[in-house]
Amino acid sequence: MERSPGAPSRMTAQTQTANRRQDGSEGQREIIAVAQKLFTTIGYRKTTVADIAAELGMSPANVYRFFDSKKSINEAVAELLLDGIVAELGAIATSPAPPSTRLADFMRELARLSDERFMTNSRVNDMVEDAMTESWSVCVRYAENVQSMIARIVEDGQVSGDFNIDDSLVFAACVKATMTCFMHPTMMALSTGLGRPDIEQVIAFTLRGLGYQPAD
């Protein structure tokens, strides 16, 4: 039987794809990218591992070579999203601006990014909320990253004299706790209709609590 003219090129493409996927990191990146697309379009709860596999042109068993469950895929997608927020906040935390300006900008941007990434797309909200509920470590790592950046700003303010406080780590933890309703999807949704102050009011309250005295 004659081989069709297109067969060699198809085999070549399949071989190249298989070779790429032998590299675990490459295979994981491909799965995460497709999962993120499906989670944000049809929803995390409706997406199956079979859907992800079909989109990639592989079997579900091959997906399980890289991730042991759908939950672990969602965890990786959520971490990617949260790491993006952390990266943007990190640029503010390490900027040369005065500590009071940095802290205000940091809190403002955290609130904005959380609203933009979590609340404007209900499917993304479900994905992150489920990841934080099912995989507490995802929530803990994100909160720890946010708190460590706040701590850096607060410590700088303590050293410069902008903030009149005794324990920078305790105050950094207090600031992070104050921001919970602006950074956790569930708390953001629940607090919206319960008289939650706006972010500018929270910033002003926080700076007063840190003993900041603006120049006249």
From TrEMBL:
Keyword Flavoprotein: no
Domain of life (superkingdom): Bacteria
Annotated region described as Disordered, given as residue ranges: 1-27
InterPro entries (alphabetical): Homeodomain-like_sf, HTH-type_TetR-like_transc_reg, HTH_TetR, TetR_C_27
The keyword Transcription regulation is assigned to this record: yes
Molecular-function annotations in GO: DNA-binding transcription factor activity; transcription cis-regulatory region binding
Domain HTH tetR-type per the UniProt entry, residue ranges: 25-85
Positions of the DNA-binding region: 48-67
Pfam families: TetR_C_27 (PF17935), TetR_N (PF00440)
Keywords from the UniProt entry: DNA-binding, Transcription, Transcription regulation
PANTHER family found in the cross-reference section: HTH-TYPE TRANSCRIPTIONAL REGULATOR RUTR (PTHR30055), TRANSCRIPTIONAL REGULATORY PROTEIN (PTHR30055:SF151)
Name the record gives this protein: TetR family transcriptional regulator
Organism, as annotated: Ancylobacter defluvii
